[in-house]
Amino acid sequence: MVRNRGDSAVSPVVLTHAAAAPRRMSDLVAAVLRDMEDLAVRRFPQWLPGAEQIAGPGGAGVRAVRMLAVRLAAGDRHFGPFLADLAEAALSGRPCTARLPAEVRAAGLGRVLGTGSTIAVTPPRGMSGSEAEVLAAGCRWLERWSGLHVQCRLQEPPPPAPRNPPAAPRNPPPASPNPPAAHPEPSVVFRGTHVALPGASPGLSGARVARGRPHHASRAEQRLESVLAGCAWAADREWNQGYHAHPLTNPIRPDLLWREARVIVEIDDDSHLRPEKFAADRQRDVRLQRDGFVVLRFTSHAVLSDPWSVAREIEDFVKRGKR
Asked: Are residues 133 and 215 in the same domain?
């Protein structure tokens, strides 16, 4: 038994999710979040102190549970609205609307389900290597944003049988008096932020580890990083690191950089629409393009509304640059 914020007693649970072969990480994330919301609704009002005395949505019931949920969030302007929506859905029996970003929903549901809870993702049979990579990336994302332990077991395919097996020796050696113990079939276990995929090295791609970090005041940079953190092709990204074309030139510090692929990503807020800033951006882009870089610019709104589409567009240029 553990205590959640608000001193409510919340016992840890194990949520089992039977995953379909995912084409996109967002597909897996959306499906697991729906399961988490269904479980949270079933456990209501255990996770919301004071809601036990509210019989139903009639009268001031909905308003009361929404106020209790905001209080549970301790004034957090992100979690409060989501927990209020979740409490209203549980009280009224209506589905919870997904009107808030996936990161906020995952963090709020992790808080509701309770510390020590586990999400057990059961992968489908016959997944390809790319589908297994997407599944593992989604599990890493869920663990990072929900704060819960996510477990996923990926079975390695058996080694192919040789086409021409060697003939048995005519005089086989005598059997050992102490034969070695049989070992179980190898499997790959996802735990924490480490995963090994069938046919891949432990580091997914063997690339360098990401350098730098998103700016602490940029929600768009942080949200894009939450997606890139689960992408093997993005392992050698550099956040807010300097680039020097020549010792006598001023350094440039792009938002996101892939040096080997010669790709730079800039995330622009509304300030980049001002004439002086717009002109300075164009001059800098020309300078970088002369040095052989592809410069991709995205608005903060585009990144916040659909970071997966932005990541897919970046992936295309990064892979081309490395080739």
From this structure: no
Backbone angles phi, psi at 150, to 5 degrees: -115, 125
User: In the listed set 107, 123, 139, which residue is the last one of a domain according to the structure?
Assistant: 139
pLDDT digit string (tens) for 187-215? 333 333 333 333 333 333 334 557 888 98
Closest of 86, 96, 93 to residue 47, by C-alpha: 86
Amino acid making up residue 74: A
Strands 149-155 and 118-122: parallel
Q: Are residues 7 and 133 in the same domain?
A: yes
Q: Are 129 and 20 contained in the same domain?
A: yes
Phi, psi of 15, deg, nearest 5: -100, 120
Retrieve residue 255's tokens: 């938002």
Same domain assignment for residues 237 and 110: no
Range of the domain at 243: 211-322
Q: How many distinct helices (H) and strands (E) make up the chain?
A: 9, 11
Strand partners, 122: 18
What is this structure's pTM?
0.49
Total count of domains within the chain: 2
Digit-coded pLDDT (tens) for 167-194: 555 565 555 555 544 433 333 333 333 3
How far is it, in rounded angstroms, from Cα 166 to Cα 218?
Answer: 62
Q: Are 33 and 17 in contact (CB under 8 A)?
A: no
Is residue 167 assigned to a domain?
no
- Is the separation of the CB atoms in 257 and 263 below 8 Å? yes
- Rounded Cα distance between 28 and 61, Å, is 34
Q: Please name which of 224, 298, 291 lies closest in space to residue 259, comparing C-alpha atoms.
A: 291
